[in-house]
Structures are given as structure tokens and as C-alpha cells.
Amino acid sequence: MKMIAMLPQLLTGLRLASIPFLWWAAYTAHWQVALFIFFIAALTDVFDGYFARKFDVVTKFGAAFDPFVDKLLTISLVTIMYLVPTMLQAPFWFFILMLSKELLLVFGAVYFGFIRREIVISAAVPGKIAGVLQGFLTLYWLFCLSFWSQLLGAFGFSRLFSLIWWGYTIFYGLMILVVVAHGAALLFYGAIFLLQRRR
Fold it and tell me: Which of 31, 110, 179, 193 could be bridged to 146 by S-S, CB 3.0 to 4.6 A?
């Protein structure tokens, strides 16, 4: 029973431990390895919450540890997408917007939730939608980098420009969706924050 109670935190810890390996895989251009690491990290994010609810082992530490690791993983991925030179490199505006949003939520949660112990805002639907879109963007980015040569072979050089155009169009389209979704989530959490402060 003790092992079951620790399982969600162990999965979250595994996700935290995957971050340095993700950085290594990206900086050494082992993109298929990076894709595999991200896939495993995403699975731990799904199953840690599932097991915590299924076995009724939700703890205050786990409730704080899980979103902290999620934020750290998101910040790492956004930074890698901007810093590592690739054919699908995230632009500066995306990096700044995403980093600012994540850091704002982290510092807000630490200050109001842990230092002042005034307000605790749980994850809600807008935030989860933004997280899912962020996951799709990351998967698409890693998939393209991992299988670029195979895609080129399948399409052929005659369709090279079409492949590049569609690749960039989908990439930037997903980025815009992610920014809009995160902006909507930030406004939602901001509204909840103001309502709770007025009570």
C-alpha cells in the first residue's frame, strides 16, 4: 500500500529526472531520443494524476510537486525550441510570451500560495486545453526533427518546397493557437485570483 501511495510522486519524479536527458538529446541532435523522452514524460503526467485519484492518495506535496515539474518541463521545452538551432526554431516572441506566462504563474503560486498562504488555484479546463495544445506543438516539432529525412524521402525533392511550406505553416499555426490558449488560461486564472481576493 505504501508503494501505491508513493507511485504518483515517483512518476512525477521520473518526469523531473527526464529534463536533463531531454536537454542532452536536443543539444546533441538526437531527436528521436528526445521524442521518446518527451513521450515518456507525457505519459507520467497522465498517469500520476490518474493513480493519485484512483487510489485516493492525493497529498499536498503531490498537488504542489506535480504542477511545479510541469512548469519546469514546459519552460525547458520552450527554451530548447528557441535556443537550439533547427529548421523549426521557435521565434523570440513565442519564447518571451511563453516564458513570461510560466514564470508569472510560478512566482504567483509561490508567493500567494506558499508564502502568504492566501490563495490556491487548482488547474482548470482552460489551463488543461492550453497544456494539451502545447503538447501537440512539442510532439509535432520533435516528430518533424526526428523524421525529416524519411519525410523528404517519401515526398521527394520535387515536393521539397511544398513540404517545407506546410511544415512551417503547421508549426506557426500551432504556436499561435498555443499562445492564444495560454493567454485565455492566464486571463481565466487572473479572474479567479481577483474574485478570491475580494472575498
Answer: 31
**pLDDT (tens digit, 9 = 90+) per residue, 45-102?**
888 877 777 767 667 666 677 888 888 999 999 999 999 998 889 999 999 999 998 8
Measured CA to CA in angstroms, residue 30 lies from 27, 33, 36 at distances of 8, 5, 10
Q: How many domains does the chain have?
A: 1
Distance CA 29, CA 17 (A): 19
**CATH, residue 77:** 1.20.120
- The CB-side HSE value for 13 (13 A sphere, CA atoms) comes to 6
Report pTM. 0.85
Residues 22 and 36 sit within 8 Å (Cβ to Cβ): no
Question: For residue 6, what are the CA distances in angstroms to 39, 40, 41, 43, 109?
Answer: 22, 19, 17, 17, 24
